[in-house]
Amino acid sequence: MREIALHILDLIENSVRAQATIIMVAIEALPEQDLLRIVIEDNGTGMKAPPETVLDPFYTTKQGKKTGLGLSLFRAAAEATGGRLTIGKSELGPVGVRVTVEMGLTHIDRNPLGDLGSSLAAVVCTNPQVDFRFRLSGGQQACDLRVWDLAAQQGTDLRDGLALGRLVLEAINTQLQACRVLT
Amino acid sequence: MTVTELAAKLELRPLTPQVTPSTEQVTGGYVSDLLSDVLANAPRGGVLVTVQVHLNVIAVAVHAELAGVIFALDRVPDESVRAKAVAEGIPLYTTKESAFDVAGRLYEFGLRGPRA
Lengths: 183, 116
Prior knowledge:
In chain A, 36% of the residues lie in helices and 25% in strands.
């Protein structure tokens, strides 16, 4: 994918399909280690197969499909930048899943982060029932953004997906401007 | 032109002789190493030219219903990847030529790619 944001969107959709009610996404630039770290975790129903199986591009849980490329392509994109993708357990739930992706921050083959604001806004908009928690950090800047808290501060109805999406778009874009190393 | 005819004209080295290629006319061609791009843009029934030799290439070829994959610059995927291609019926070929030159020759044969 040309944008990392689309890989992230793909993995969030996996969490939503696993009936997660809490989904955390952390994106962290560590310039001193030349690292971009992305962590996506949830309290969903867990993976039905061991990590080496779910990373196989021919493994999918969707009926009528022969291939499952979300994790495989993200892993290949990470490895192309000297990084890696690992799958572990999340403490958010009894069988929660945590996917950690590390990429070379300044590696020539690393794709740009892309339109993260729009991607996250889209997923919040269509899943207002999920407790989304985002963390963006880079350089000296860090920001934790829990969508439900943000909505409470702004007096936004939690059932109004479109309004939540708008809040997320603005908040993420503002934070991305502050964290100039997150590109 | 079928995949078999095309492979003969380009003098491609077959990597999956166990696979019987489709006898349909090849619909077009695509050159890319970014597999999500291949997924989105490669023409169904067309051939892909790439230097990527990962298992993901085979999965993408299956998903995009490609007629075959040509690896440029003499790249050869691992045995496990070739075995998967055989199991999925995707013919693989390799050539010493660059992707640029392979694409040029495919174009001469009348194949075209998609437009954005």
